[in-house]
Specification:
The chain starts with a helix and ends with a helix. About 70% of the residues lie in helices and about 0% in strands. It contains 6 helices and no strands. It is rod-shaped. It has a domain at about 1-30.
Length: about 130
């Protein structure tokens, strides 16, 4: 190795050495694998594969749509306070109307004079007015 170096240093234009150098250069070019080129080749292969899959999918005939039963929509388990409040108020109004109508008899209400006679209030008012 050292002798080759000294030989090349002393005889730079030797035909034998020139041929060896050229062969070495050619071997380097042939054996040299560019990493960026390999990466680009892989990326191109992936892109081509994806394009093929996309084209195949676009060109396929669409499958007929099968009608499915409608899905029941479930109501939320929690009810907002405003909605709940309105519901409770409406129930209370209905209950109040029911209680009012249940308390009323079918006959007309007695007059105030009749009620005073029943309770004997009329006599008490007259006697108190007479004393004044």
């Amino acid at each position: 190795m050292l002798t080759n170096w000294i030989h090349r240093l002393l005889n730079p234009h030797c035909e034998h050495c020139l041929r060896e150098r050229e062969l070495e250069r050619e071997e380097r070019k042939e054996n040299k694998i560019c990493e960026s080129c390999e990466t680009l080749k892989k990326q191109l292969e992936i892109a081509n594969h994806n394009n093929d899959r996309l084209m195949a999918r676009l060109l396929d005939k669409p499958e007929p749509i099968v009608n499915q039963a409608p899905v029941e929509i479930s109501r939320p388990k929690t009810i907002p306070w405003r909605v709940k409040q309105q519901m409770l108020e409406a129930e209370d109004r209905q209950r109040a109307i029911a209680l009012r109508s249940a308390g009323k008899p079918d006959a007309p209400a007695p007059s105030t004079e009749e009620l005073e006679k029943e309770l004997g209030v009329e006599d008490a008012l007259r006697s108190s007015n007479a004393q004044v």
